[in-house]
Amino acid sequence: MNVDIAVLTAKVEEYGSFFNRLQRPTKWPGTKENPNQYAWTLGAISTGTREFQIALGLTHEQTNVPAAIAALATFSIFRPRYLIFMGIAGSLDRNVSKGDIFIADYVRAYQYGSISEAGILEPRSQFQEPTDQTLRTNADAFHVTNRWWRHVGKKPDGSGYPALHFGGLASGDAVVENASVGYFAPILKHDSWLRAIEMEGAGLALAVRHLREAGYVTGLMVLRGISDMPLGVADKTASATPGATANREIRKQWTRYASKAAAVFLEQYIKHAFPYTPAEAEPAENTGGELAPTQLDAEVFTTYGSHFIRADELPVIHAINRETYRPSVLISTSALEAWWRANPFSIRLISTSSGRAVGYWHLVPLTAEAYQGMVEGRLTERDIQPGQILQYQDLQAGSVYLYIGAVSARLKMQPASAAVILDLIAFLRLLDDKLRIDGICAQLVSTDALPLVVNFAMTKLHEHDGISTWVLKSREQIDRALKKGRQELERLKGLVPESSRKEKRSVLQLLKR
């Protein structure tokens, strides 16, 4: 089954805080093959017009290895679009107060390093994983536009309401009572951006990295309520007093408050500002009397969706390339990422409804000089520099030249590969309607790409060292190619739908100059 969001917690207090905010919470029954290992509960959070489907789990074991195992098990059963670890953490910054909310910009597994002969830890940066920028950006905007903290109440010490902070998250398997001396001090010196510490985030991040490299699309967020502050944080000169312990009742009070604050923030964020609308709950569009789009073959087209990739999805693209092409014909991963940074709307990922990546296409707007160089054979794909790649909003009528960098489908997903070409054709049609395309070229490094040039009815110009260049360089060719591409897909798999009004609006906004 598929849910929108999976929320994992490590402590029963955290689990209970979010459980109480779910609508219609129901224990997942489990099966003989997949028993309910992590007290999974299914529920919903309503926005008033639609509902997000939520799976809530309890690892019940702190530290990163149990968190990674729980995350993979949760994903294998529920296929969430986003994985969120929610709970409590300690502050490493005097400005991040107890009772506040912290969202990780990145997760650092801080315990990797070496112990010197003097017995001092020398940290190393083996594992530092970014979290989902989309979730972070929307959470920041939500915090400043919504009085969510009213649902939490004032802090136990009466100092006010919770604030929201971002930064680096230190994740390890040790409880740190003193951050200023001994074992942990070199870690803070090594990475001064660390602002909170906990024990599960690195495991979750590693699990999500594994899922992305396997071709799945899932986002990552680590959200924490601050429940304590190690010695040496509030007062940099503080030192530990041997045998000193904090008042247990006060700690419990802050733990309960921090758990509640994190649960309330997450509930209100999902309810009011989450960055997408569940597909099964999208409101129907008013067609104004127009005929509804004809549905496609259910086995191919009604089960996929697409979106422009984010930075954290680049590993998925690299994984598809490694699976699809010989290493000798690929441009370097650094070059591909530099192209993407030059135009972040050039790569679009196509996925099944369960989040499994089918493939992607890569469409690169080029300067007129670069395009002409490719047509004349003076320039190959490997020669393209980021400075020769344009943003869509910088394109000028009469000089709209495009290079098809890739139309790739995973080998195991070949029955659905037509969906990748369909999606590219849909985008090209919108682009042509808005700006009028003046030329399209592609360079083939493998016979596997021949269906692409067949579908687009491209003309072969030349071939050198096994690399052939194909073009559409006249309006007549471009019009014929888009029409033929559509007809070919209709012949193969059924009728091609018109893009929705929502998709057209988003693309037109992208092309606005």
C-alpha end-to-end distance? 42 Å
Radius of gyration: 26 Å
Query: CATH superfamily of the largest domain, called what?
Result: Nucleoside phosphorylase domain
- Give the beta-strand count: 19
Largest sheet: 7 strands, mixed
Q: Tell me what portion of residues adopts beta-strand conformation.
A: 15-25%
Q: Which runs of at least 5 residues are low in confidence (pLDDT < 50)?
A: 236-244, 280-303, 492-499
Q: Provide the CATH topology of the largest domain.
A: Rossmann fold
Task: Please give the order of strands in the largest beta sheet.
Answer: 13-14-15-16-17-19-18
Helical segment tally? 13
Give the averaged pLDDT, no decimals.
Answer: 80
Briefly, what CATH class of the largest domain?
Alpha Beta
SS-based structural class?
Answer: alpha/beta
What characteristics describe this protein?
513 residues, alpha/beta, Rossmann fold, Aminopeptidase, seven-stranded mixed sheet, five-stranded mixed barrel, 32% helix, elongated
Description:
- This protein folds into two domains: 5-238 and 246-279, 3-Layer(aba) Sandwich (Rossmann fold); 301-511, 3-Layer(aba) Sandwich (Aminopeptidase), CATH 3.40.630.
- A hairpin with a 4-residue loop joins strand 14 and strand 15 (357-366).
- Mean pLDDT is 80; it is low at 236-244, 280-303 and 492-499.
- The protein has 513 residues and is of the alpha/beta class.
- It starts with a strand and ends with a helix.
- It has helices spanning 12-19, 64-78, 133-145, 185-190, 201-213, 248-273, 314-324, 333-342, 368-375, 418-435, 450-455, 475-493, 501-511, and strands at residues 5-9, 23-27, 41-46, 51-58, 82-91, 101-109, 113-115, 121-123, 128-130, 164-171, 194-198, 219-228, 304-308, 347-352, 357-366, 401-409, 439-444, 459-464, 467-472.
